[in-house]
C-alpha cells in the first residue's frame, strides 16, 4: 500500500499529514481555515485518496502560511507515497463542472515541477481563506510533488464554484495519474526513470 506520513514544524505552522493513495476511506481535515478544509476534502474524496491533515498555523496573521505550507507537505507526501513510480499511468486530465463554472486540470507525474495557472477570482476571500492562495497552494503542491501541473478555470461566475471545480479536478486528475496499470512494466519514460 502506498502511504506516506509527513510532519513539518516552523515558526509559522505545525503540520501533521498522512496520505494513502490506495485507501480512500479515511479523510479528516483540520487546518483552522474552513473553506480550505472543504477544498482539501473535495480533493481527497474526488481523488479517492485517504488524507488526514492537522494544522496549527499563525491564523492571527492570515491564512497564507497555513495554505502554502499544507501544499508543501501534501506534495512531499504524494511524492514519497509514489516511491519509484513503477507501473503508474503517469498522466491525468480532468474537466469538472460546478454549476456555471468549469475547471480543468492536466498533470504529469514527471519529476519536473512546473505550474501553469489561469484563474481570476472576483471575491477576494471566502471566510478566512484568501482566494489568491489557490494558486499558492497549487504551486506548493506541484513543486514539492515533482508534478507538471496545468490548472485553468475555463469560465464561471461564482468564486466558490470556480475554486471547488479546480480542487475536484486536481483530485480526479491525480487519481488517474497514480493509478497502477498491471500492463506497465517499470515506468513510462524513455529515460527509464521518473525523477
Features:
31% strand, single chain, 34% helix, 4 helices, 195 residues, 4-stranded mixed β-sheet, alpha+beta, Ribosomal Protein S5, domain 2
Number of domains: 1
Helix and strand succession?
A: EEEHEHEEEEEHEH
Classify the helix fraction into a percent range: 25-40%
The Rg value, from CA coordinates, equals 16 Å
CATH topology (fold) name: Ribosomal Protein S5, domain 2
Mind describing the biggest β-sheet?
4 strands, mixed
Q: Segments where pLDDT lies below 50 for 5+ residues? A: none
Distance between the termini: 21 Å
Number of helices, where a helix is a run of at least 4 consecutive DSSP H or I residues = 4
Shape: globular
Q: What's the total count of β strands?
A: 10
Mean pLDDT across every amino acid position: 94
Q: For the largest sheet, list the strands in their spatial order.
A: 1-2-4-3
Structural class: alpha+beta
The appropriate CATH architecture is 2-Layer Sandwich
CATH class category: Alpha Beta
Specify the CATH homologous superfamily: Imidazole glycerol phosphate dehydratase, domain 1
Amino acid at each position: 500500500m502506498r502511504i506516506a506520513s509527513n510532519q513539518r514544524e516552523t515558526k509559522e505552522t505545525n503540520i501533521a499529514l498522512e496520505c494513502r493513495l490506495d485507501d480512500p476511506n479515511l479523510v479528516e481535515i483540520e487546518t483552522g481555515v474552513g473553506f480550505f478544509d472543504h477544498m482539501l476534502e473535495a480533493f481527497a474524496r474526488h481523488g479517492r485518496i485517504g488524507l488526514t491533515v492537522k494544522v496549527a498555523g499563525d491564523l492571527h496573521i492570515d491564512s497564507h502560511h497555513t495554505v502554502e505550507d499544507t501544499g508543501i507537505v501534501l506534495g512531499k507526501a504524494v511524492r514519497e507515497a509514489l516511491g519509484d513510480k513503477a507501473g503508474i499511468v503517469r498522466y491525468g486530465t480532468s474537466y469538472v463542472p460546478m454549476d456555471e463554472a468549469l475547471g480543468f486540470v492536466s498533470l504529469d507525474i514527471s519529476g519536473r515541477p512546473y505550474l501553469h495557472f489561469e484563474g481570476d477570482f472576483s471575491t477576494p476571500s471566502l471566510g478566512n481563506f484568501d482566494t489568491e492562495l489557490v494558486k499558492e497552494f497549487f504551486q506548493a503542491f506541484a513543486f514539492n510533488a515533482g508534478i507538471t501541473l496545468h490548472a485553468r478555470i475555463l469560465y464561471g461566475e461564482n468564486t466558490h464554484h470556480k475554486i471547488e471545480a479546480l480542487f475536484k479536478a486536481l483530485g480526479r486528475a491525480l487519481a488517474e495519474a497514480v493509478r497502477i496499470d498491471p500492463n506497465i512494466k517499470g515506468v513510462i519514460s524513455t529515460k527509464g526513470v521518473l525523477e
